[in-house]
Amino acid sequence: MQDVQLPFVFKRCLLAGLISAFVISSGAYAQQASDGTIDQEESESAAQSLERQSEEVKQDEEAARTATHWLKQLAETVSEQNFQVSFVVTRMGQETTPYLWRHAVMDDGTSMEQLNLQNGPGQEQIRVGNTVSVFEPDSQPYSVNSGAIHGPIPSALLYNPESLKAAYKFVTVGRARVSGRTAQQLRVISRDNSRFSYQMWLDESSGMLLKFNTLDLQGSVLEQIQVTSLTLSEAPHPYFAKVNKASLPQPMATRDGETPTHNWELGYLPQGMKKVKQDVRRLPGTGQVVEYKMLSDGLVDVSVYVQSARQALGSDVALRHELNTFLSVNNGNVQITVVGEIPLPTATAIAQSLTVTNP
Amino acid sequence: MTQQQEKVSAFMDGEIDSSEILDALKNDPELQGQWQRYHVIRSGLRKEASVAPQLDITSQVAAALDNEPTVMAPKRSGWRKMFSGSVTPFARQSGQLAVAASVAMAVILGVQQFNQPDQVNSPTGGATPLIGTPGGLAPVSLEQSRPVSRTDMATMMEKKRKINALISDHEQQVKLKQAKQDDNQAKREQQ
């Protein structure tokens, strides 16, 4: 039987070879054809960029003003419209994760929101007014008092972009086509260039976020959020009528302990970043006692841990986990660990700026 | 036959409709055996192993070997698949590879070992083994190097655990931060 098959196999090989040769040659031809047009385009765009430079100074202020306008529109849409959005999150070297995001304003004026992780066992977050309930496969469902769901899109950017102005500048870049829609592109850059920068594309008709890139200092994309479908509707999605509000878990009471004092301070904070929390506690994983400060500029949160050098890692470590930079350095007396979505040089600067206030 | 097995496998993964394979599965005892084995394999791979593999594997392996034809030529189905578009097995395989590769993805930016504190000059020098001392002497003999590598492994694991504890704590703090802020705001509004 195999004797009969062999010739066929060879014939198929030959056929495949012929086909691929044809594909390659036609591809080369197409490239040649397009090469000619590119030359023309280049010279045109060079002239355009000269013109652009002269107008740039004027446009900067204008761009900042229009950026504010677009961000306002985004905030209005995400808090006042009924919508259903599908988006995917892509990180370098990782699987793409799809999300479903819905929002509705009910007849009684309550704002309801849902964010569902669509792959695997999933994760579901439901927000009713100012209570967010979280359902995860590996833990008990719980609720917290919060005006926004904690998802891949930073909530400060969606609801309160004005609060980010101290740390970031927003600049409109131009128009583009994203998710099949005309979009306005904005750049978000930290004022002292010490943090990751962002590119965002907003739908021109609704102001809705269509695409969101996180870039490192070299400009390569670390994370990309891409909307794949967007539906704005008059009426709330029927899903929200099915949510039984009484069956959602009661919100946890957050403990408001007194703030313990640390005998160390951080001499350097990136512009617009503030200390938002400080305490002393045991790490859930290892039971080690740490002194803890949280820094935040509204968009990114940075944790600073200080622990005695003896029980710590024993050596200096710098690594990246998802978008988080993890840096742990030993200054001789204590181990300082900085974790957050910031570039490594910034984390190093924060760690090295630690000074003891009253020994 | 192999096509049927592929279908069973695809059905288990929820990749094809139930209707086409269900009838075949009901009527074919061999396919039913396949179905069971696939499940045992899967639970084994996932380390669930709740399904006890109640099969006499040796006899089945022997039988399978007897039935196995000696393949000398490339499989005919390979080309057919490429052209007929039923390439799901390929796609599935590459997908699984991607999953395996993406597990435990922490990119090490750089490990610096400089200016270590002299924490090893404790008076009871002999009590703690001088292992993993930065800049320490290299092990002289094979005898010494064995315990070194083993304890190194242990310290690596310990280090990993500590790093993970810090990262997960950070993630939890970020999650709780917003809740806390809004909570305080609500309290202020009530007063």
Features:
heterodimer; A: 359 residues; alpha+beta; 11-stranded antiparallel beta sheet; 6-stranded antiparallel beta sheet; 19 strands; disordered N terminus; B: 191 residues; mainly alpha; Anti-sigma_E_RseA_N (chain B); Anti-sigma_E_RseA_C (chain B)
* Separation, N- and C-terminal Cα atoms of chain A: 88 Å
| Low-pLDDT segments, ≥5 res of chain A | 1-39
Mean pLDDT of chain A: 82
| Major pleated sheet of chain B | none
Cα-atom radius of gyration of chain B: 29 Å
The largest contact between protein chains, plus residue counts on each side, is: A-B, 58 and 52 residues
Helix content of chain A: 25-40%
Report the β-strand fraction of chain B as a percent range.
under 5%
Tally of DSSP helical segments of chain B: 7
Shape call of chain B: elongated
| Tally of helical segments of chain A | 4
Helix-strand makeup class of chain B: mainly alpha
Q: Judging from the principal axes of the Cα atoms, what is the shape of chain A? A: globular
Relative strand content of chain A: 35-45%
Oligomeric assembly: heterodimer
What's the SSE pattern of chain A? HEEEEEEHEEEEEHEEEEEEEHE
How many beta-strand segments of chain A? 19
Q: Average pLDDT value of chain B? A: 58
Radius of gyration of chain A: 26 Å
